[in-house]
Design a protein that fits this description.
Elements: H1 2-45, H2 52-57, E1 62-65, E2 71-74, H3 79-90, E3 96-101, E4 104-113, E5 116-123, H4 127-168, H5 188-220, H6 222-237, H7 242-270, E6 278-282, H8 283-297, E7 302-307, E8 310-314, H9 315-331, E9 338-344, E10 347-352, H10 384-394, E11 398-404, E12 408-414
Parallel strand pairs: 7-9
Antiparallel strand pairs: 1-2, 1-5, 3-4, 4-5, 6-8, 9-10, 10-12, 11-12
Length: about 425
Protein backbone atom coordinates (compact mmCIF):
# COMPACT_ATOMS: atom_id res chain seq x y z
CA UNK A 1 0.00 0.00 0.00
CA UNK A 2 0.98 3.63 -0.50
CA UNK A 3 0.65 4.20 3.25
CA UNK A 4 3.35 1.62 3.94
CA UNK A 5 5.55 3.07 1.23
CA UNK A 6 5.01 6.56 2.64
CA UNK A 7 6.08 5.55 6.15
CA UNK A 8 9.03 3.58 4.84
CA UNK A 9 10.24 6.60 2.89
CA UNK A 10 9.53 8.97 5.79
CA UNK A 11 11.28 6.85 8.42
CA UNK A 12 14.24 6.24 6.13
CA UNK A 13 14.73 9.90 5.26
CA UNK A 14 14.30 10.97 8.90
CA UNK A 15 16.77 8.34 10.09
CA UNK A 16 19.33 9.34 7.47
CA UNK A 17 18.88 13.04 8.23
CA UNK A 18 19.21 12.42 11.97
CA UNK A 19 22.28 10.26 11.41
CA UNK A 20 24.10 12.83 9.28
CA UNK A 21 23.01 15.68 11.57
CA UNK A 22 24.23 13.73 14.60
CA UNK A 23 27.59 13.06 12.95
CA UNK A 24 27.91 16.75 12.01
CA UNK A 25 27.04 17.90 15.54
CA UNK A 26 29.43 15.37 17.08
CA UNK A 27 32.26 16.56 14.87
CA UNK A 28 31.38 20.18 15.69
CA UNK A 29 31.33 19.40 19.41
CA UNK A 30 34.72 17.70 19.26
CA UNK A 31 36.23 20.60 17.33
CA UNK A 32 34.76 23.24 19.66
CA UNK A 33 35.72 21.34 22.81
CA UNK A 34 39.25 20.76 21.47
CA UNK A 35 39.65 24.46 20.73
CA UNK A 36 38.32 25.39 24.15
CA UNK A 37 40.49 22.87 26.01
CA UNK A 38 43.63 23.81 24.07
CA UNK A 39 43.02 27.43 24.92
CA UNK A 40 42.78 26.55 28.61
CA UNK A 41 45.95 24.45 28.37
CA UNK A 42 47.88 27.27 26.68
CA UNK A 43 46.90 29.57 29.48
CA UNK A 44 48.03 27.04 32.06
CA UNK A 45 51.37 26.03 30.54
CA UNK A 46 52.68 29.39 29.36
CA UNK A 47 56.30 29.79 30.60
CA UNK A 48 55.41 32.41 33.21
CA UNK A 49 52.83 30.08 34.67
CA UNK A 50 55.11 27.10 34.93
CA UNK A 51 56.30 28.38 38.23
CA UNK A 52 54.88 26.44 41.12
CA UNK A 53 53.86 29.60 42.94
CA UNK A 54 51.79 30.76 39.98
CA UNK A 55 49.84 27.49 39.91
CA UNK A 56 48.97 27.91 43.53
CA UNK A 57 47.57 31.35 42.81
CA UNK A 58 45.15 30.14 40.09
CA UNK A 59 41.72 29.81 41.73
CA UNK A 60 39.70 26.60 41.59
CA UNK A 61 42.71 24.44 40.69
CA UNK A 62 43.68 21.21 42.40
CA UNK A 63 47.32 20.14 42.31
CA UNK A 64 48.49 16.58 42.97
CA UNK A 65 52.13 15.55 43.19
CA UNK A 66 52.92 12.23 41.50
CA UNK A 67 56.36 11.55 42.96
CA UNK A 68 56.41 8.73 45.55
CA UNK A 69 52.70 8.02 45.14
CA UNK A 70 50.13 10.76 44.89
CA UNK A 71 49.93 13.66 47.26
CA UNK A 72 47.46 16.47 47.49
CA UNK A 73 49.31 19.75 47.14
CA UNK A 74 46.26 21.92 46.85
CA UNK A 75 42.52 21.39 46.42
CA UNK A 76 39.59 23.78 46.65
CA UNK A 77 37.07 20.95 46.36
CA UNK A 78 35.26 18.84 48.90
CA UNK A 79 36.89 15.73 50.30
CA UNK A 80 34.47 13.46 48.41
CA UNK A 81 35.16 15.15 45.07
CA UNK A 82 38.88 15.33 45.80
CA UNK A 83 38.97 11.56 46.37
CA UNK A 84 37.33 11.04 42.99
CA UNK A 85 39.82 13.40 41.36
CA UNK A 86 42.74 11.54 42.99
CA UNK A 87 41.37 8.23 41.68
CA UNK A 88 41.28 9.62 38.13
CA UNK A 89 44.72 11.23 38.49
CA UNK A 90 46.20 7.95 39.74
CA UNK A 91 45.04 6.17 36.56
CA UNK A 92 45.99 9.02 34.25
CA UNK A 93 48.02 7.87 31.23
CA UNK A 94 47.69 10.65 28.68
CA UNK A 95 49.08 14.13 29.13
CA UNK A 96 45.60 15.60 29.14
CA UNK A 97 42.24 14.05 29.85
CA UNK A 98 38.69 15.33 30.08
CA UNK A 99 36.52 13.72 32.71
CA UNK A 100 32.97 14.47 33.78
CA UNK A 101 32.33 14.17 37.52
CA UNK A 102 29.17 15.15 39.33
CA UNK A 103 27.79 16.81 36.20
CA UNK A 104 30.85 19.01 35.66
CA UNK A 105 33.76 18.65 33.25
CA UNK A 106 37.33 18.58 34.61
CA UNK A 107 40.59 18.95 32.73
CA UNK A 108 43.42 16.71 34.01
CA UNK A 109 46.81 17.95 32.82
CA UNK A 110 50.24 16.47 33.58
CA UNK A 111 52.94 19.12 33.97
CA UNK A 112 56.54 19.12 35.12
CA UNK A 113 57.69 21.89 37.43
CA UNK A 114 61.23 22.06 38.80
CA UNK A 115 61.87 18.46 37.76
CA UNK A 116 58.82 17.15 39.55
CA UNK A 117 55.65 15.78 37.96
CA UNK A 118 52.28 17.14 38.96
CA UNK A 119 48.69 16.66 37.88
CA UNK A 120 46.79 19.88 37.65
CA UNK A 121 43.00 19.57 37.72
CA UNK A 122 40.95 22.50 36.51
CA UNK A 123 37.16 22.56 36.35
CA UNK A 124 35.83 23.74 33.03
CA UNK A 125 32.54 24.75 34.50
CA UNK A 126 29.42 23.78 32.59
CA UNK A 127 30.63 25.06 29.23
CA UNK A 128 31.12 21.71 27.53
CA UNK A 129 28.21 20.19 29.42
CA UNK A 130 25.95 23.00 28.20
CA UNK A 131 27.37 22.60 24.72
CA UNK A 132 26.51 18.92 24.74
CA UNK A 133 23.00 19.61 25.95
CA UNK A 134 22.57 22.35 23.34
CA UNK A 135 23.76 20.08 20.55
CA UNK A 136 21.50 17.29 21.79
CA UNK A 137 18.58 19.71 21.85
CA UNK A 138 19.41 20.87 18.31
CA UNK A 139 19.61 17.24 17.14
CA UNK A 140 16.22 16.37 18.65
CA UNK A 141 14.48 19.52 17.38
CA UNK A 142 15.81 19.26 13.85
CA UNK A 143 15.05 15.52 13.71
CA UNK A 144 11.44 16.18 14.74
CA UNK A 145 11.15 19.07 12.29
CA UNK A 146 12.64 16.86 9.58
CA UNK A 147 10.03 14.20 10.34
CA UNK A 148 7.06 16.57 10.05
CA UNK A 149 8.43 18.45 7.04
CA UNK A 150 9.20 15.13 5.38
CA UNK A 151 5.66 13.97 6.12
CA UNK A 152 4.24 17.09 4.46
CA UNK A 153 6.48 16.84 1.40
CA UNK A 154 6.04 13.10 0.91
CA UNK A 155 2.25 13.37 1.37
CA UNK A 156 2.14 16.08 -1.25
CA UNK A 157 4.33 14.09 -3.63
CA UNK A 158 2.23 10.94 -3.15
CA UNK A 159 -1.11 12.74 -3.50
CA UNK A 160 -1.41 11.79 -7.22
CA UNK A 161 -0.94 8.13 -6.28
CA UNK A 162 -3.59 8.43 -3.57
CA UNK A 163 -6.00 10.01 -6.07
CA UNK A 164 -5.37 7.16 -8.49
CA UNK A 165 -6.00 4.59 -5.75
CA UNK A 166 -9.27 6.27 -4.74
CA UNK A 167 -10.46 6.40 -8.34
CA UNK A 168 -9.33 2.83 -9.06
CA UNK A 169 -11.44 1.55 -6.14
CA UNK A 170 -14.52 2.94 -7.87
CA UNK A 171 -13.99 0.85 -11.01
CA UNK A 172 -16.36 -1.98 -11.77
CA UNK A 173 -17.70 -3.87 -14.75
CA UNK A 174 -20.52 -1.32 -15.07
CA UNK A 175 -18.33 1.79 -15.35
CA UNK A 176 -15.32 0.78 -17.40
CA UNK A 177 -15.48 4.18 -19.05
CA UNK A 178 -13.99 5.85 -15.95
CA UNK A 179 -10.38 6.91 -16.16
CA UNK A 180 -7.72 7.82 -13.63
CA UNK A 181 -6.92 11.53 -13.19
CA UNK A 182 -3.68 12.48 -14.92
CA UNK A 183 -1.77 14.97 -12.73
CA UNK A 184 -0.08 17.85 -14.53
CA UNK A 185 3.22 17.05 -12.83
CA UNK A 186 5.19 16.14 -15.97
CA UNK A 187 6.91 13.30 -14.14
CA UNK A 188 6.67 9.55 -13.56
CA UNK A 189 3.30 9.90 -11.80
CA UNK A 190 1.73 11.48 -14.87
CA UNK A 191 3.30 8.81 -17.06
CA UNK A 192 1.99 6.09 -14.71
CA UNK A 193 -1.56 7.49 -14.86
CA UNK A 194 -1.37 7.73 -18.66
CA UNK A 195 -0.08 4.15 -18.93
CA UNK A 196 -2.81 2.83 -16.62
CA UNK A 197 -5.46 4.68 -18.63
CA UNK A 198 -4.12 3.16 -21.83
CA UNK A 199 -4.32 -0.25 -20.17
CA UNK A 200 -7.91 0.51 -19.13
CA UNK A 201 -8.68 1.46 -22.74
CA UNK A 202 -7.45 -1.94 -23.88
CA UNK A 203 -9.41 -3.70 -21.13
CA UNK A 204 -12.56 -1.79 -22.04
CA UNK A 205 -12.16 -2.67 -25.71
CA UNK A 206 -11.63 -6.32 -24.78
CA UNK A 207 -14.81 -6.30 -22.67
CA UNK A 208 -16.70 -4.55 -25.44
CA UNK A 209 -15.50 -7.13 -27.97
CA UNK A 210 -16.56 -9.92 -25.65
CA UNK A 211 -19.93 -8.31 -24.98
CA UNK A 212 -20.46 -7.61 -28.68
CA UNK A 213 -19.51 -11.18 -29.52
CA UNK A 214 -22.03 -12.57 -27.04
CA UNK A 215 -24.74 -10.25 -28.35
CA UNK A 216 -23.92 -11.22 -31.92
CA UNK A 217 -24.02 -14.92 -31.08
CA UNK A 218 -27.35 -14.70 -29.27
CA UNK A 219 -28.83 -12.49 -32.00
CA UNK A 220 -27.65 -14.32 -35.09
CA UNK A 221 -27.88 -17.92 -33.93
CA UNK A 222 -31.45 -17.60 -32.76
CA UNK A 223 -32.96 -17.67 -36.28
CA UNK A 224 -30.94 -20.62 -37.69
CA UNK A 225 -31.47 -22.62 -34.50
CA UNK A 226 -35.19 -21.99 -34.78
CA UNK A 227 -35.03 -23.21 -38.39
CA UNK A 228 -33.15 -26.36 -37.36
CA UNK A 229 -35.72 -27.08 -34.65
CA UNK A 230 -38.54 -26.53 -37.13
CA UNK A 231 -37.04 -28.84 -39.77
CA UNK A 232 -36.31 -31.45 -37.09
CA UNK A 233 -39.93 -31.42 -35.92
CA UNK A 234 -41.08 -31.62 -39.54
CA UNK A 235 -38.85 -34.65 -40.18
CA UNK A 236 -40.09 -36.35 -37.03
CA UNK A 237 -43.74 -35.64 -37.82
CA UNK A 238 -43.46 -36.98 -41.36
CA UNK A 239 -40.84 -39.64 -40.73
CA UNK A 240 -42.70 -42.04 -42.99
CA UNK A 241 -42.35 -39.73 -45.97
CA UNK A 242 -38.80 -40.02 -47.31
CA UNK A 243 -38.99 -36.94 -49.52
CA UNK A 244 -39.93 -34.58 -46.66
CA UNK A 245 -37.32 -36.12 -44.35
CA UNK A 246 -34.61 -35.70 -47.01
CA UNK A 247 -35.54 -32.08 -47.69
CA UNK A 248 -35.61 -31.35 -43.96
CA UNK A 249 -32.17 -32.91 -43.44
CA UNK A 250 -30.75 -30.99 -46.41
CA UNK A 251 -32.14 -27.76 -44.99
CA UNK A 252 -30.70 -28.59 -41.55
CA UNK A 253 -27.29 -29.22 -43.11
CA UNK A 254 -27.36 -25.98 -45.11
CA UNK A 255 -28.43 -24.04 -42.02
CA UNK A 256 -25.68 -25.69 -39.96
CA UNK A 257 -23.12 -24.79 -42.64
CA UNK A 258 -24.26 -21.17 -42.55
CA UNK A 259 -24.05 -21.24 -38.76
CA UNK A 260 -20.48 -22.56 -38.89
CA UNK A 261 -19.49 -19.83 -41.32
CA UNK A 262 -21.26 -17.22 -39.21
CA UNK A 263 -19.52 -18.38 -36.03
CA UNK A 264 -16.13 -18.34 -37.77
CA UNK A 265 -16.81 -14.81 -39.01
CA UNK A 266 -17.78 -13.66 -35.53
CA UNK A 267 -14.63 -15.24 -34.10
CA UNK A 268 -12.56 -13.43 -36.71
CA UNK A 269 -14.31 -10.18 -35.86
CA UNK A 270 -13.70 -10.60 -32.11
CA UNK A 271 -9.98 -11.39 -32.46
CA UNK A 272 -7.36 -8.90 -31.40
CA UNK A 273 -5.19 -7.83 -34.34
CA UNK A 274 -2.17 -6.50 -32.47
CA UNK A 275 0.39 -9.03 -33.72
CA UNK A 276 0.20 -8.58 -37.48
CA UNK A 277 3.39 -9.25 -39.42
CA UNK A 278 3.68 -6.45 -41.96
CA UNK A 279 5.70 -7.11 -45.12
CA UNK A 280 6.01 -5.92 -48.72
CA UNK A 281 3.74 -7.96 -50.98
CA UNK A 282 3.66 -8.10 -54.78
CA UNK A 283 -0.06 -7.52 -55.26
CA UNK A 284 -0.37 -8.95 -58.78
CA UNK A 285 1.38 -12.18 -57.85
CA UNK A 286 -0.69 -12.38 -54.64
CA UNK A 287 -4.00 -11.88 -56.48
CA UNK A 288 -3.05 -14.42 -59.14
CA UNK A 289 -2.64 -17.05 -56.41
CA UNK A 290 -5.98 -16.09 -54.90
CA UNK A 291 -7.73 -16.24 -58.29
CA UNK A 292 -6.47 -19.80 -58.80
CA UNK A 293 -8.38 -20.84 -55.67
CA UNK A 294 -11.47 -18.81 -56.59
CA UNK A 295 -11.58 -20.38 -60.06
CA UNK A 296 -11.72 -23.87 -58.54
CA UNK A 297 -14.38 -22.88 -56.03
CA UNK A 298 -16.49 -20.83 -58.46
CA UNK A 299 -15.84 -22.28 -61.93
CA UNK A 300 -18.83 -20.47 -63.43
CA UNK A 301 -17.26 -17.06 -62.74
CA UNK A 302 -14.67 -15.18 -64.75
CA UNK A 303 -11.94 -13.22 -62.94
CA UNK A 304 -10.39 -10.26 -64.73
CA UNK A 305 -7.07 -9.09 -63.24
CA UNK A 306 -4.96 -6.13 -64.39
CA UNK A 307 -2.37 -3.80 -62.92
CA UNK A 308 0.81 -4.25 -60.92
CA UNK A 309 2.01 -2.86 -57.60
CA UNK A 310 3.27 -3.42 -54.07
CA UNK A 311 1.52 -3.04 -50.71
CA UNK A 312 2.71 -3.40 -47.11
CA UNK A 313 0.36 -5.76 -45.29
CA UNK A 314 -0.01 -8.91 -43.22
CA UNK A 315 -0.26 -11.81 -45.67
CA UNK A 316 -2.94 -13.74 -43.77
CA UNK A 317 -5.05 -10.66 -43.08
CA UNK A 318 -4.78 -9.57 -46.71
CA UNK A 319 -5.98 -13.00 -47.86
CA UNK A 320 -9.04 -12.71 -45.59
CA UNK A 321 -9.85 -9.25 -46.99
CA UNK A 322 -9.53 -10.32 -50.64
CA UNK A 323 -11.57 -13.49 -50.08
CA UNK A 324 -14.37 -11.60 -48.31
CA UNK A 325 -14.57 -8.94 -51.04
CA UNK A 326 -14.51 -11.49 -53.88
CA UNK A 327 -17.18 -13.67 -52.22
CA UNK A 328 -19.28 -10.55 -51.68
CA UNK A 329 -18.94 -9.65 -55.39
CA UNK A 330 -19.87 -13.20 -56.43
CA UNK A 331 -22.88 -13.20 -54.12
CA UNK A 332 -24.39 -10.14 -55.80
CA UNK A 333 -23.42 -10.84 -59.42
CA UNK A 334 -26.73 -12.12 -60.73
CA UNK A 335 -26.47 -11.30 -64.44
CA UNK A 336 -22.80 -10.91 -65.44
CA UNK A 337 -20.74 -13.59 -63.72
CA UNK A 338 -17.50 -11.63 -63.69
CA UNK A 339 -15.34 -10.20 -60.92
CA UNK A 340 -12.88 -7.45 -61.84
CA UNK A 341 -9.69 -7.05 -59.81
CA UNK A 342 -7.28 -4.13 -60.21
CA UNK A 343 -4.08 -3.28 -58.30
CA UNK A 344 -1.35 -0.66 -58.06
CA UNK A 345 1.20 0.64 -55.58
CA UNK A 346 -0.58 0.89 -52.24
CA UNK A 347 -4.05 -0.15 -53.41
CA UNK A 348 -6.25 -2.81 -54.99
CA UNK A 349 -9.94 -3.02 -55.91
CA UNK A 350 -12.66 -5.63 -56.36
CA UNK A 351 -15.60 -4.81 -58.62
CA UNK A 352 -18.80 -6.62 -59.62
CA UNK A 353 -21.49 -6.01 -62.24
CA UNK A 354 -24.42 -6.57 -59.91
CA UNK A 355 -27.39 -4.41 -59.01
CA UNK A 356 -25.41 -1.95 -56.93
CA UNK A 357 -26.20 -0.44 -53.53
CA UNK A 358 -28.57 2.48 -52.89
CA UNK A 359 -26.64 5.67 -52.15
CA UNK A 360 -28.38 6.25 -48.80
CA UNK A 361 -27.19 2.86 -47.54
CA UNK A 362 -23.51 3.05 -48.56
CA UNK A 363 -22.41 4.47 -45.19
CA UNK A 364 -23.92 1.56 -43.25
CA UNK A 365 -22.76 -1.45 -45.22
CA UNK A 366 -19.72 -1.89 -42.93
CA UNK A 367 -21.91 -2.12 -39.81
CA UNK A 368 -22.28 -5.49 -38.13
CA UNK A 369 -25.21 -7.50 -39.51
CA UNK A 370 -26.53 -4.60 -41.53
CA UNK A 371 -28.49 -5.86 -44.52
CA UNK A 372 -29.50 -3.93 -47.58
CA UNK A 373 -33.00 -4.63 -48.84
CA UNK A 374 -31.71 -6.24 -52.03
CA UNK A 375 -29.67 -8.77 -50.06
CA UNK A 376 -32.37 -10.50 -48.10
CA UNK A 377 -32.75 -13.24 -50.64
CA UNK A 378 -29.03 -13.84 -50.81
CA UNK A 379 -28.13 -13.67 -47.16
CA UNK A 380 -26.99 -10.03 -47.09
CA UNK A 381 -23.55 -8.63 -46.40
CA UNK A 382 -23.64 -10.15 -42.92
CA UNK A 383 -20.33 -9.86 -41.12
CA UNK A 384 -18.09 -10.03 -44.17
CA UNK A 385 -17.62 -6.30 -44.72
CA UNK A 386 -17.28 -5.64 -40.98
CA UNK A 387 -14.38 -8.11 -40.94
CA UNK A 388 -12.88 -6.49 -44.04
CA UNK A 389 -12.95 -3.03 -42.47
CA UNK A 390 -11.46 -4.29 -39.21
CA UNK A 391 -8.54 -6.03 -40.93
CA UNK A 392 -7.87 -3.11 -43.27
CA UNK A 393 -7.75 -0.62 -40.40
CA UNK A 394 -5.51 -2.97 -38.42
CA UNK A 395 -3.07 -2.78 -41.34
CA UNK A 396 -3.19 1.04 -41.17
CA UNK A 397 -5.29 1.29 -44.30
CA UNK A 398 -8.76 2.36 -45.34
CA UNK A 399 -11.51 1.03 -47.59
CA UNK A 400 -13.79 2.99 -49.91
CA UNK A 401 -16.89 1.91 -51.78
CA UNK A 402 -18.43 3.19 -55.01
CA UNK A 403 -21.76 1.92 -56.24
CA UNK A 404 -24.39 2.79 -58.79
CA UNK A 405 -27.78 1.13 -58.94
CA UNK A 406 -27.96 -1.28 -61.85
CA UNK A 407 -24.23 -1.02 -62.69
CA UNK A 408 -22.45 -2.76 -59.80
CA UNK A 409 -20.24 -2.01 -56.83
CA UNK A 410 -16.51 -1.35 -56.47
CA UNK A 411 -14.51 -1.69 -53.24
CA UNK A 412 -11.04 -0.08 -53.15
CA UNK A 413 -8.57 -0.85 -50.37
CA UNK A 414 -5.72 1.59 -49.72
CA UNK A 415 -2.62 0.35 -47.88
CA UNK A 416 0.93 1.55 -47.39
CA UNK A 417 3.31 0.92 -50.26
CA UNK A 418 6.53 1.34 -48.26
Amino acid sequence: MVFKAKWKILITQTALFSLFLGIALLISYNVISAIYVNRIIRQMVEPPLLKFERFLKIPNIAVFALNDGIKVVRTPFSKELTDKLIEVARKLKDRKTLKSLEGEDFLFLKVEIRGKEFVVVRPLGFVLHSLRRSFLFIWIVFSVVSFFLGNMVISRVLNPIMDMIRQARKFSGENLGRRLPEPETHDEFQELARTLNEMLDRIQKAFERQSQFMNDVSHELKTPLTSILGYSELALRFSDREEIVKESLDSIRETADRMMKLIQNMLDLSKSLENLVMERIDMRHFLEKQIENFSKEFPEFQFDLSGDGVVVADRKALAIVVKALVENAIKFSENEKIVILRCGDGWFSVEDRGKGIPREELERIFDRFYKVDRSRSTGGYGLGLSIVKKYVEAMEGRIEVESESGRGTKFTVFLRSS
